[in-house]
Known about the structure:
This protein is of the alpha/beta class. Helix content is about 45%, strand content about 10%.
Amino acid sequence: MASSTLICDTQPWKELEAHAEDVKKSHLRDLLSDDERSRSMVVEFDGILLDYSRQLATLETKEKLFKLAEVASVKEKINRMYNGEHINSTENRSVLHVALRAPRDAVIQSDGKNVVPDVWNVLDKIKDFTEQIRSGSWVGATGKELKDVIAVGIGGSFLGPLFVHTALQTDPEAIESARGRQLRFLANVDPIDVARNITGLNPETTLVVIVSKTFTTAETMLNARTLREWISSALGPSAVAKHMVAVSTNLTLVEKFGIDPNNAFAFWDWVGGRYSVCSAVGVLPLSLQYGFSVIEKFLKGASSIDQHMYSEQFEKNLPVLLGLLSVWNVSFLGYPARAILPYSQALEKFAPHIQQVSMESNGKGVSIDGVPLPFEAGEIDFGEPGTNGQHSFYQLIHQGRVIPCDFIGVVKSQQPVYLSGEVVSNHDELMSNFFAQPDALAYGKTSEQLQKENVPPHLVPHKIFSGNRPSLSLLLPSLNAYNIGQLLAIYEHRIAVEGFIWGINSFDQWGVELGKSLASQVRKQLNVSRTQGEPVQGFNSSTTSMLTRYLQASADVPADLPTRLPQI
């Protein structure tokens, strides 16, 4: 396919559009009765089992999707990504988050240079530094050990590390490694988030990690200055060098802030924010909490999937299959949303992270060549752990809109519970729902079945389940650091495959810029209105009215701001 050709103009796309009309006449009740089809839609790699037999797809659908991948040059695009070519063309950058978890002896080039040694230099530096902190050989300004960490960052500097942290908190090995330590994340510029983060902490025992590539991100740097004031007011300005470190490439601003540049941990412009959890962005705070050896296992799990994605044929390639099925659901069956439903409370922050990775990557309206798309790309992602979600939004999934679902289950619980006299263990109770829900969505319940159950006639229409609602199931052997890395990489690569097929740039995010630009105008207006009494001007009547009301109702905010920290 020529680079200027839209994927929707190709023959395989048109054939899939026609094929989708035929498949829509099928029902999963019938498709699932074909055992050969069902068996062919189960794939296993490195302990992870994928069953996509409950997708509204036939064996012919698979073949047609593989042809679409071929005409979209998916394999070539994967190779170009792994070879360090500048596939992020709008920013003229490589896309090499795979290098962040590559083995030490790997060779991955960017601009003619093997970047893996640089990656491991930073990892080694993180290992040395975190061991100093955790062993107590590095202490705070008053000689006390630093056992509490606040990581300050937003977006990709926050959601990914928070997901991994939350998933590890109940892992037995991680618990042992984290004993006596705390890790908190400060992201929102809302002062309430600052208050919640510092409540119960002592500046003497707290280390702050500021995560900002340029050291200019507005929200992050305001929060960083706030925590600097919190530390300085308690321990004196000289304490900053002992209590604050940075993940940044701007060493000049790091030093100007008061942090020793030797305590800055680098990452590179070929690491996108939402793909940065395996860089110092995530590895530093997570290693401070759990120790480098635990986080290295997380990196190895991700690397296993990286190698699988690169070398496995598409018929058995987990991320490729998942990406193709997403394109099938969105672009051909007309289902724009996806529910991510992990049956593990430890994965409660997984859906919010994938929400960003997916929607910031693929929420695009033009092709990579800047041509407006005549179709909609991207998925609307949301989710909640089971069984909580069942008592929240499953009503809509079962009897309202059709929303393809990802069910994620774990064979061995991190924290098994058994009660004498119970029919099953607590984890088996959870997993009973994991296995039941996909079948409920697929088969539904007919009026004939309801009548046989003597359901009153006036209730029959309300109790009918149409079924034919697609889902897929991922079963993980356990949920340790290695498995968490696997899961992360599967979804990262799945999202890239979707973008490769749609022909968009999944690695830029221009859509976040306009709001930030307009916010800077509002910030200037608030300043001159507060300090000089200037009326609101230069905005439309709606914004002018709302801003004026806000200023009038908050007139008690002093014009010359004194320093004031949260009072909790």
